[in-house]
């Protein structure tokens, strides 16, 4: 699985965030749009695109989008 | 997973009762207008029914049952089994079913007990009541399923408060020796027991003064340990993966063609969960009714409430084969396939 595709998928769950702000190093909690509802969209996206079950704990222990990517990648 | 098959028991009627008081999620003061719209888009919940302080799930159930007995013209002495599925019992003990046996005016020969399940409770309840009726040759039984979830949550906890509504249902079953079959898939994953939990007040952690102290777990999540805690992300993840599995397991085990099913009624917890499930199962969206918008998550009452509110007219025209699927607290899940005959009584009432 590719980080570039993951970043694109991540950007797609956001409505009002410029895709240029979505990088591997981005601390996703710093995105203005990020909240608990966005977290649900993230879980749904990961389930749909990668057939992976992302838990609340996975999100809680991640800081950057790269961290999330690694968690998903380890479960693929 | 336990896959079960049963014959000869029919549903004769479903009656739901909700409190008249409506709370609108757009009126919530602790969320910004933008947060509220986002919440409504994701969850689909705009309004919820709230029981008054002195109205319990048993009171809503009593009205639902009375109306059902009246419509069915059932002699109360003929009801030999009462099952009360709820997580909002009147008291820690005795069981609420015993209190209801007396208040409903049922015979002292009636078996009555509680089953404290939540979102999977309606399907579990159907399996318990039909299984007992079949095994013990019981003629008539009544299944109560419902909750006053608003008494269990903190009104200052945004992770639970905007989700839950109050409602109760009564479903009448009769032993008819018909050829109609009822099929079940039931399961449990207790490793997720902490995902939806009230920590204090049971035997493990008795209620103390500290249990009633409010803690702010994160901004907007202020509650005490005698109130419901919900890990939304884990429950979401569980719902979108487990619900399609239990449905597929049942369908595959009995080689059911999905096209034979007229409606798929899922537990109403969150619109995004149900849309995901629908998509994964490749079910036409017009076969998946919702009552989330008006009632929110009413625990074990969501499935019967969706049937009486959304499918009444369709069922009254011709017999319908339904697949019902509940999933949640436990973690626990259940799926059932059954047919509702067109002469069935379907009743919706507001509590008076």
TrEMBL record, chain A:
Gene3D superfamilies from the UniProt entry: ACP-like
Q: Which InterPro entries does the record match to this protein?
A: ACP-like_sf, PP-bd_ACP
Write down what this protein is called: Acyl carrier protein
Tell me the superkingdom of the source. Answer: Bacteria
Record domain Carrier: where? 1-76
């Amino acid at each position: 699985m590719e980080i570039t595709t993951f970043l694109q998928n991540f950007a797609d769950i956001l409505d009002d965030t410029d895709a240029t702000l979505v990088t591997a190093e981005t601390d996703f909690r710093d995105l203005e749009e990020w909240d608990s509802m966005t977290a649900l969209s993230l879980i749904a996206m990961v389930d749909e695109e990668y057939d992976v079950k992302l838990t609340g704990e996975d999100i809680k222990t991640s800081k950057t989008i790269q961290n999330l990517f690694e968690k998903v990648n380890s479960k693929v | 997973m336990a896959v079960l098959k049963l014959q000869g028991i029919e549903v004769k009627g479903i009656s739901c009762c909700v409190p008249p008081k409506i709370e609108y999620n757009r009126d919530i003061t602790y969320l910004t207008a933008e947060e509220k719209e986002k919440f409504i888009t994701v969850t689909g919940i705009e309004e919820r029914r709230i029981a008054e302080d002195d109205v319990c799930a048993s009171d809503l159930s009593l009205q639902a049952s009375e109306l059902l007995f009246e419509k069915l013209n059932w002699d109360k002495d003929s009801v030999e089994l009462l099952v009360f599925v709820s997580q909002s019992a009147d008291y820690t003990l005795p069981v609420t079913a015993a209190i209801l046996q007396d208040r409903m005016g049922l015979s002292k020969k009636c078996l009555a007990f509680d089953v404290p399940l939540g979102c999977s409770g309606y399907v579990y309840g159907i399996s318990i009541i039909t299984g007992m009726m079949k095994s013990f040759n019981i003629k008539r039984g009544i299944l109560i399923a419902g909750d006053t979830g608003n008494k269990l949550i903190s009104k200052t906890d945004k992770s639970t408060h905007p989700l839950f509504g109050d409602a109760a249902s009564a479903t009448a079953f009769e032993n008819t020796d018909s050829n109609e079959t009822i099929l079940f898939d039931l399961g449990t994953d207790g490793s997720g027991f902490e995902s939806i939990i009230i920590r204090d007040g049971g035997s493990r952690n008795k209620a103390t003064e500290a249990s009633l102290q409010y803690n702010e777990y994160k901004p907007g999540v202020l509650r005490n340990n005698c109130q419901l805690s919900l890990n939304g992300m884990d429950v979401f993840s569980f719902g979108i993966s487990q619900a399609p599995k239990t449905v597929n397991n049942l369908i595959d085990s009995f080689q059911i063609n999905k096209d034979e099913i007229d409606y798929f009624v899922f537990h109403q917890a969150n619109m995004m969960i149900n849309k995901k499930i629908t998509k994964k199962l490749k079910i036409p969206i017009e076969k998946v009714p919702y009552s989330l918008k008006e009632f929110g998550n009413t625990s074990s009452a969501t499935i019967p409430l969706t049937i009486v509110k959304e499918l009444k007219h369709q069922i009254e025209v011709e017999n319908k084969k339904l697949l019902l699927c509940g999933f949640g607290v436990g973690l626990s899940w259940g799926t059932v396939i059954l047919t509702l005959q067109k002469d069935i009584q379907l009743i919706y009432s507001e509590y008076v």
